[in-house]
Design a protein that fits this description.
The structure is a single chain. This protein is an all-alpha fold and about 120 residues long. The radius of gyration is 16 Å and the shape is elongated. Helix 1 packs antiparallel against helix 5. The protein is built from 5 helices and no strands. The protein has one domain.
């Protein structure tokens, strides 16, 4: 059992946190107001931890590709992330929240499955 699998619960928590922040900055109320989320001013501390965790998350997914039992999960997570980015890139603000929520839900499902597999292998 590799220690890479033991990091899955941390990234699961991060995914839930991303959904909460996404709702806060891109939520229905923000869309109704017509405000631009880039102008809302996320705090520097939050931006630092969010960016740092995203970088660590991508590194973890790439490292997961090297582990035999983690390849399918890594490919799934990477595919969902890349496809989600591609869809968000071409969408207007009203659809970005929907895409982010769906993308986050799929990644949470993959991480839950990875956590369950890790738990069974312990």
């Amino acid at each position: 059992m590799t220690t890479l699998f033991l990091l899955a619960p941390l990234f699961l928590i991060f995914e839930v946190w991303q959904l909460v922040l996404g709702e806060r900055y891109l939520g229905i109320k923000q869309i109704a107001r017509g405000s631009d989320p880039r102008g809302l001013g996320i705090s520097e501390v939050t931006a630092f931890f969010w960016s740092s965790t995203l970088i660590a998350y991508w590194i973890w997914m790439m490292l997961l590709l090297t582990v035999r039992y983690g390849r399918a999960y890594a490919v799934g997570l990477l595919l969902v992330s890349v496809l989600g980015y591609a869809f968000r890139r071409g969408s207007n603000l009203k659809w970005i929240l929907v895409i982010l929520t769906f993308e986050g839900a799929v990644r949470i499902g993959l991480l839950l499955s990875l956590c369950a597999m890790t738990w069974r292998r312990l």
